[in-house]
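Hey, sorry to bother you again with one of my protein questions. There's a protein on my desk that I can't quite get my head around. No rush at all, and the record is pasted right below.
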Amino acid sequence: MTLEQVSRRAAQSKWDVWWAAVKKSPQVILLALVILGIFTAFGHRLWDLQFVQGDYYQQRANRQSVRYVTIPTSRGIIYDYDGTPLVRNVPSFKVVIVPAYLPDDEEEAESVLIRLAILLDMPYTTSGEGIEEEESPLGLRDILRNKLRDKFGNELPFDTYYHPVVIDQGVGRETALIVAQESMTLPGVSIEADSIRDYPYGPLVSQILGYLSPIPEEGAEEYRERGYNPATDRIGSVGIEVAYEDRLRGQKGRKLIEEDVLGREIRVIGEQVAATPGENVHLTIDLAMQQFVENALRQGMARSESPRGAAIVMHPQTGEILAIVSLPTYDNNLFSGGISVRDWQRLGENVHRPMLNHAIADRLPPGSVFKIVVAAGALQEGVLTPHTHLSCPGTIVVPNKYYPNDPGQSQPFPCWNRAGHGALDVAGGLAHSCDIFFYKTGGGFEPSNFEGLTVGGIAHYARLFGFGAPTGVDLTAEISGTVPTARWKRLTYGESWSTGDTYNLSIGQGYLAVTPLQMLNAINAVANSGTLYRPLIVHHVTDPDGNVTQPFQPDIIRTLPISVENWSLVQQGMEGAVVYGTATNAQIEGVRVAGKTGTAQFCDDIMCGVGYAQPEHAWFAAFAPLEDPEISVIAFLYNGGEGSTKAVPVVHEILDHYFNGDGSNGDGSNGDGSNGDDVNSDETAS
């Protein structure tokens, strides 16, 4: 027997022995089958993962380790007319948490958040501590929870957990470095470079510039579609910041990065889209003039003990706004890093609303300044001619049409000058601001069979002058005001229009409501003989390279259908007010100034008198030089008293500064009399 045969026989013998043992133990067979099944299953699954679904899982792995990151851009700068920057982008840092990258264990995640709160010197939570919410900022945990829930308190979808949540912004460099150094022990936490808006001139131009604020939850999806990140981005809220948001914001870039399991960036795989800085906005505002006008207005308010006021300077030939001041005001730097609850309450509790631009958003009776509209309309309609003279006896009486024979039912309508002005033509009526002249001009006078312009005519010309509609200036919150008519009163109050209502409207009282900007724009139409411009506060816009993308272009709203001769008569009356009428303290040596005073009685939710004893707003508007107007100015003082003694000095100071350049009357000492001031010139006639 050969060796090979011996070997084969030995192997066969072993197999026989093993098989005999297996037959005696069925469990061994079962175990073998189980093992075989397990290896078969693992093999099949391995084949499926490696070959059948290999590409799918490779893509998922890539998505978890690779993601797109936005590259922030710089917001455009806002300049004054001379190129002085009115806002800066200050480098800053913000602390961001991606909730999905926090530890899965709740205790470990809480430990990370507590440690971060300590580093940021902010409370971990303010809930359940007995602290009034309005007096304490939200804690870190509360901020995070709020971002992960909708307004009804329901938890948002899980993919929201991969969106970064801003926990703190405007973080100092040292704090940011400390948090970055501890990143290994703070999974899910990162520091991002940021910039905040710094407004170096603060309250001086805050009503013009506005500020940035977080994107509101309502409408967040719309902003997301426009390329914003609602969780981290801030947008313009008021002023130029919101009016030119699309130009100022710029376009973010995007890059592809590889990250580790904690969400930290390992390397940049490739930059996809470069960031584009925002465009720069150049205003018509002259910063030096803005500062001077604010000082003049503030001093005028102090002299008249007025808590609120507005002053505007414009170029009447183009509609450019050189200065626009509203007091009281606020510091828009309060909003740069997120305004505190205490500061927000302080601003909101001020009854004179410092955050409201009173130059464009106050509903005010203009008083006698409005008489220019009535005069121009009456001249154009032939109610008045250059030769018309109307008598002012000091008081006129209008019989009650329902009781014509009962003198006790008649209504007296006095002039501010109880002694009367005598017979006046249109220029004299404007110069002396005679109430009775304009009662008759607007509402007629039945005893002398004189037919006036009527309420319909006054309303028609008021709208032509721009009242009853926004001017269209590039500032937010501008209101339309009110131009009343008989139909308006019927719909609003359910009452019929009366002759007394027309008399009130004729002198800028009653239901009429305007803004200071509307009133000055109407003055501009007189100054330039009939062109109503849209007020401009933006001169032009440039791209980051300095190329002009929006050039300066005056915008004509309409040309008023009033003859040159009639404009000349109105201008003569306004010049007469400064030369010999109610505004003699507005005279500038060597300069022909034309102006119109106003003293408007009012009753609002802050102040209200009884009968004729009403508080009074002070108004004065002027332009110069008469022959070729370069500048127009208006001043409004809430509860300031007589326009001739309180508002005239403010405008005179501004005009003197403009033409003489030395502000020689900067102390506001312009005397305290005014040769025929329209004292109580706008007393309400009921």
Notes: DSSP finds 22 helices and 23 strands in the chain. The longest strand covers residues 88-97.
